[in-house]
Amino acid sequence: MTPQQRQPWSRRGAVPPALCAGIVAVAGCGGGGSSFASQADAVCKAYNAKFSALPKPTASTLTTYLDQGAALLAQGTAKLKAIKPPSGKSAAYQSWLSALDQELSVIRRADATAKAGNLRGAVTQLQQQAPGVSSQAKTGAQALGLKECAA
Questions:
Q1: Which residues contact 84 (CB under 8 A, 6 or more apart)?
Q2: pLDDT: which is higher, 116 or 59
Q3: Most buried among 12, 108, 114, 126, using CB within 10 Å?
Q4: Residue 67 belongs to what domain range?
Q5: Is residue 71 part of a domain?
Q6: Is 151 inside any structural domain?
Q7: What is the pLDDT of residues 55-103, one digit of tens each?
Q8: Would residue 83 count as lying in a domain?
């Protein structure tokens, strides 16, 4: 899957899908399979909407965009970590959350590169590193049956 096929960042132009993978919003705690999926998907749906509302980045707004995207990813991931998966999905869920943490690391490294004055390097980092972690996160969400999170 190409970076342009991922949501919601695929339509953002210069910034690849580094922020999208399984971002998420209003989580509770629970253990039932369908309850678990509906809680996680509600979080993902809410945070995907927040990401979509961010203004399209330009060279002069890239660091602000990455800061805002990283903050949303961190908040959404924290909410996801509060959800208790069914025991049979616990290992897969932890693996998926780890992929989201890796995605956040990619974004933060690119943000630091951009803030150091190397915008081209930041975009290159995102283009080279984001597709792999985004794909891993999407695959993990699909395996868990999280439709909104895999979008």
A1: 29, 30, 31, 36
A2: 116
A3: 126
A4: 20-143
A5: yes
A6: no
A7: 999 889 999 999 999 999 999 999 999 999 999 999 999 999 999 999 9
A8: yes
In eight-state DSSP terms, residue 6 is: S
Does 34 fall in a domain? Answer: yes
Burial of 56 (0-12, 13-18, 19+ CB in 10 A): exposed
Q: Tell me the average pLDDT across 100-129.
A: 95
- The answer to whether residues 27 and 43 touch, using CB atoms and an 8 Å cutoff, is yes
CA angle at 18 for the pair 12 and 10, rounded to the nearest 5°: 30
Handedness of CA 51, 100, 77, 29 (dihedral sign): positive
Domains in the chain, number: 1
Residue 143 has pLDDT above 50, yes or no: yes
Helix residue ranges per DSSP H, 54-145: 62-81, 90-115, 119-143
The reply to whether omega before 86 is within 30° of 0 (cis) is no
pLDDT-derived band at 34 (thresholds 50, 70, 90) equals low
CB 107 within 8 A of CB 129: no
